[in-house]
Amino acid sequence: MSVDSSVSKEVKPESVLLCPLGTTAAPEQKLLCIFGTGDLGRSLGQRLLQCGYRVVYGSRRPNSCGPLPRGTKAMNHEAAAMSAALVFVCVHRENYDFMEALAPQLNGKVLVDVSNNLKKNLYPESNAEYLQRLIPGAHVVKAFNTLSAWSLQNGPSDANRQVYLCGNSVQAKQAVEEMATKLGFAALDRGSLSAAGELEDFPLQLFPEWRLPLRVAVGLTAFFFFYLLMRDVVYKYVEQGKDTSFRIMVSLANKVFPIVSLIMLALCYLPGVIAGFLQLYRGTKYRRFPDWLDRWMLCRKQIGLIALGFAFLHVLYTLVIPIRYYVRFRIAENTISQIRENRTSVFDTTTAWRADSYYSMGILGFGLYVLLGISSLPSVSNALSWREFSFIQSKLGYLTVFFCTFHTYLYGWDRFLHPNTYKWFTPPGYLLSLVVPSVLIVLKLLLLLPCVDRSLTRIRQGWERTDPEDGSEKALLT
Ligand code: NAP
Q: What range(s) does the Ferric oxidoreductase domain occupy (predicted)?
């Protein structure tokens, strides 16, 4: 592996070459340099070698830096920097200072900053901007920081195929983009180096769009669990002296899950309806929604998927009902008492209709629920046209809300009329769960009224209601 010390002198500041000069004539593999022989440096070197590059390491201890990928070589930073036109900086930001002294050797070279930080806003400027400030003559490109050493070593997979990059030099970005493509990644240009801070924040994010839906789900689950615990267990113990605490495991859970599922399903569709009314009220679609509504709309998919998860749990808990000891005991007890007392219960057609309709609505609702979940998978939604996707998510979505709400109404039937269901003056849980979906259905029906629907469709097609006394809507268009 030859080291060409004339490279830095001959490379003009705006020209970016991946091959050391003097070797371009021969069809030789390109030589790249990596500063740092740590986890990322070694994984990256391994991957570059596998994809046909030659690699040289710049290290503080070139003779004792531990095992490196076979076929690579370690040198001191200065020699390594001069040997290649592109240098990966696989060193933590806190240790960047040593590069200041290498400014002459790094002048005109592409410096790929792969670093991340432990926390957001730790420094006033991004690591890549800091590196650019240390070596103003180099072309700093922020890239590869969203990949782990492990994924670099193993090659791209569906989950981490993308390499985000940004930088001020178009040629430098092109050089990094080409190399990323050769390594099997898809490069996504995020603009100038000022976007580096945003890229450095990416790996610190922990399910950002799931946070709000999960908080809502946990809050609702906790509230309904304690509400039903008080009504179904504590009330019985205090008022009747009966210990029904065993109901917590299945009965209570199988009440909480469908309640949370139904409310979350309604919450998934409610912001769309609110947005519709807001547009009708404002008479335009060109005004931004309030922030809270924007945030709510953006996490509808996650709300829907959590609702589906709770619906799955409800189905599973319902399936075990017939094998429960408590249920088998009650059936046997009832049969034996009928035999003893020589009496037969009369078949009630209304109850049969009600029970069958209740199950049927539940099954249909769950079937559509699953369809909504499947169609939200990227691989499925990508295969659908926009019209097909919105038909499933909107029309079938509202049908799902309707089936599930009706299923709950049938479950309650006329129980809400009986005073003994209001234990300690509290309404039963299912009644509370019906509030949001019922409001949603009523609002949606109002939006479907022909005169309202016509106005909303026109607004969504760009029509604006201009108020002669207030020119604010017009001003928004200019
Ligand atoms: P690491 O295992 O700690 O390696 C860092 C390397 O930097 C060391 O092996 C050392 O190499 C060099 N170094 C340490 N102190 C130095 C100093 N004072 N002056 C000059 N060089 C020094 O860290 P890493 O996991 O490879 O991470 C390197 C960079 O990649 C970090 O900025 C990190 O945020 C980023 N990153 C890492 C991963 C990952 O999965 N590990 C993923 C994305 C981004 P020598 O002994 O050879 O000089």
A: 259-403
What kind and span of H or E run contains 472?
Answer: helix 472-477
CB of 38 within 6 A of ligand 1: the answer is: yes
Among protein residues, the one whose CA lies closest to atom 17 of ligand 1: 95
Report the interhelical angle of 291-298 vs 300-319 (nearest 10°).
Answer: 50
For the stretch 240-296, pLDDT in tens is 999 999 999 999 999 999 999 999 999 999 999 999 999 999 999 999 999 999 999
For the chain, what are the domain ranges?
Answer: 31-204, 208-464
Average pLDDT value for residue range 125-150? 96
Q: Please state, for a pLDDT cut of 70, what percent of the chain lies above it.
A: 91
CA of 80 to the centre of ligand 1 (A): 16
Which residue carries 């509808």 as its tokens? 300
* Among the listed residues 398, 409, 397, the one whose alpha carbon sits nearest the alpha carbon of residue 435: 409
Task: Answer for the pair 111, 131: CB distance below 8 angstroms, yes or no.
Answer: yes
| Cβ of 72 below 6 Å from ligand 1 | no
Residue 264 CA, chain-centre distance (Å), reads: 17
Burial of 329: CB neighbours in 10 Å, binned 0-12, 13-18, 19+: exposed
Locate the ligand 1 atom nearest the alpha carbon of residue 91 and give its number: 7
Residue 158 has pLDDT above 90, yes or no: no
- Which residue minimizes the CA distance to atom 10 of ligand 1? 36
Nearest ligand 1 atom to alpha carbon 93: 32
Ligand 1, closest atom to CA 94? 18
Gap between the Cα atoms of 68 and 61, Å rounded: 13
How is residue 392 written in tokens?
Answer: 């499933």
- Please give the pLDDT value at position 379: 86
Contact 464, 477 (CB under 8 A): yes
Instruction: Indicate if ligand 1 lies below 6 Å from the C-beta of 90.
Output: yes
Q: What's the 89 CA to ligand 1 centre distance in angstroms?
A: 8
The model's pLDDT over 21-71, given as tens digits with 9 standing for 90+, comes to: 444 444 567 999 999 999 999 999 999 999 999 999 999 999 998 899 999
pLDDT single digits (tens) 193-231: 999 999 999 999 888 889 999 999 999 999 999 999 999
- Please choose from 92, 146, 164 the residue to mutate so as to test ligand 1's pocket, defined by most ligand atoms within 8 A of CB: 92
pLDDT at 466 over 80: no
CB 131 near ligand 1, within 6 Å: no
46 lines ligand 1 (CB under 6 A): no
Percent of the chain with pLDDT over 90: 82
Q: For 461-472, b where at least 16 C-beta lie within 10 A, e where not — what string?
A: eeebeeeeeeee
Q: Which amino acid is at 117?
A: N
